[in-house]
UniProtKB/TrEMBL annotation:
Residues 7-498 form the Major facilitator superfamily (MFS) profile domain. Its main location: membrane. This is MFS transporter. It comes from the Bacteria.
Length: 529
């Protein structure tokens, strides 16, 4: 296979490994909660333990690849993903599961910017590159689709830990192929690592998500929450100051002079905040309210990811003919409409009644994913494409990390506050109602599952389901508001064209207009494998 073909295949395989744990864990949340007796906030950390390292270190990984070699970072990401999967596979406590997820998140942080940079290096023409970014996005969505179904099938026969076996052989095979066939490449004029920027960015992201999760689980007036949010603000300010003064910033703030990059970055962060957070809530709805097994949950989520996968592939092929503004705005409006239609869902809503709403959601997501990534990369000079891809992904993952934290907090707060009324309506009073209310307030609605409910179990679960639906509807309204805001921003800010290059000043260099298709010898260096 020619080198370009090998590079593209490995890049797609890498993003597949990076995203495979996302839906496999999402559909298994109910099983994990039951097996490890976790609270809702602890369960949110299962998802965020993966997303946080990805958001915090994705920029550093992209620059490390530009400086020291993308193949090195790519292989390291695959190995970290494999070690993380092995750690989670052997987990017997929530702490070890968090550790495994964190290692997998570090692997994903290395893989995401590197895979896009490898494609950018292999395909320097930004018009042709859009097609391959579409394939890359299809592999990302394919991992989301396959992960859930595989996890559901596995949990039908063995315990939840075995869902983490799947990424191991895929990652190890990709390592072997990479070491044998993937050429090494670096960015031109690569600087050195920006440690002050990395430290302040990691502190800001981690403190922000910690503060939101713990504030939602307890109170935003608690000392540790106030301190965490203060650290997030101070670290964020220091990051901006550091990047403005650095000769080799890990995120050149001049990128934000490009309307295309700025618009797609804002849209990505807001959309992922709403969507990843809602997937967390949706998985719990299927498990706690509709009482579905893991495979049943996976099939329903497959409607979303399957539709997104098909549409994303089509979007990659037609992207050079249609305005990215039109595609992104239309997709976000479809997502918003789908979320609003789900407000009518309840415990008895059938798969058929849900399927068209989930299909609409997937269509909208697929229409957004490819043009959003391609526009961010195409809207800056070619030498900055890797940094642009990493920056766009970093802000996207910040939104993804905040999503379960914000919506999980809203879900718990609304559901717990409405539970006493639903228990009374169901005829559950006295000491039993008080015990259920106290348990849900301390550890979330999932704590009810470990209680001895006696002959009133059916009434209690009906009340719990109604309380959960109250919380889910609030989350739907918030998610729909966020995606509508993203649609407005996309319409107002995304350039109407198909991604022309703009003049952007690189840190430490004079402003210069970089041609849309630069001489490859001037922008990349390649070392034989």
């Amino acid at each position: 296979m020619p080198r370009r073909g090998t590079t593209i295949v490995l890049a797609c395989l890498g993003v597949f490994v990076a995203y495979l744990p996302v839906t496999s864990v999402s559909v298994s949340l109910t099983a994990i909660q039951s097996a490890l007796s976790t609270t809702t906030s602890q369960l949110a950390w299962v998802s965020d333990a993966f997303v946080l390292p990805m958001a915090a270190f994705i920029l550093t990984a992209g620059i490390f690849g530009d400086v020291h070699g993308r193949r090195k970072v790519f292989v390291t990401g695959l190995l970290l993903s494999a070690v993380g999967a092995a750690t989670s596979l052997t987990a017997h406590s929530i702490g070890q599961l968090w550790a495994g997820q964190a290692l997998s998140g570090l692997g994903a942080a290395a893989l995401l910017p590197t895979t896009l940079a490898l494609i950018s290096h292999a395909v320097p023409d930004h018009r042709e590159r859009g097609k391959f970014i579409g394939i890359w996005a299809m592999c990302l969505l394919g991992a989301l689709a396959v992960g859930g179904v595989l996890a559901g099938s596995i949990l039908g026969h063995v315990g939840w830990r075995w869902i983490f076996l799947v990424p191991l052989p895929v990652a190890l095979v990709a390592v072997v192929i990479s070491l044998r066939a993937l050429p090494e490449s670096r960015a031109p004029r690569a600087g050195r690592l920006d440690w002050p920027g990395q430290i302040t960015a990691a502190l800001a992201i981690t403190a922000l998500v910690y503060g939101v999760i713990e504030g939602g689980a307890g109170s935003f007036g608690d000392l540790q929450v106030v301190v965490a949010l203060a650290v997030a603000v101070v670290s964020g300010v220091l990051f901006v100051v550091t990047e403005r003064r650095s000769a080799h910033p890990m995120l050149d703030l001049a990128l934000f002079r490009s309307p295309g990059f700025t618009a797609t970055t804002l849209v990505a962060m807001i959309m992922f905040l709403g969507m990843i957070g809602f997937f967390f809530v949706l998985s719990l709805y299927f498990g706690m309210v509709q009482r579905l097994d893991t495979l049943g949950i996976a099939w329903r989520l497959l409607v979303i990811t399957g539709a997104a996968l098909v549409v994303s592939g089509i979007a990659g092929r037609v992207m050079h003919r249609l305005s990215p503004r039109f595609m992104i705005t239309t997709g976000l409006l479809l997502v918003t409409a789908s979320l609003l239609t789900l407000l009518g869902a309840d415990a008895g809503t059938s798969f058929g009644a849900l399927s068209w709403r989930l299909l609409l959601l997937g269509l909208g997501m697929g229409l957004v994913t490819t043009p959003m990534t391609a526009t961010a990369v195409a809207s800056v000079p070619h030498p900055l494409a890797g940094m642009a891809a990493a920056g766009n992904n970093a802000f996207r993952q910040v939104g993804g990390a905040l999503g379960p934290a914000v919506l999980g907090a809203l879900l718990t707060s609304r559901a717990v506050s409405s539970l006493p009324g639903h228990l009374a309506d169901a005829g559950v009073h006295g000491a039993l109602a008080d015990r259920i209310t106290a348990a849900s307030r301390d550890a979330g609605l999932g704590a009810v599952g470990s209680m001895d409910l006696g002959p009133r179990a059916g009434q209690v679960w009906g009340a719990v389901g109604e309380a959960f639906l109250d919380g889910m509807r609030l989350c739907l309204i918030v998610s729909a508001g966020l995606t509508f805001l993203a649609a407005v921003l996309a319409f107002a800010l995304v350039p109407p064209g198909t991604g022309r290059k703009r003049s952007v000043r690189v840190a430490g260099e004079p402003a210069a207009r970089v041609p849309a298709v630069p001489d490859r010898r001037e922008v990349e260096t390649e070392t034989p494998a």
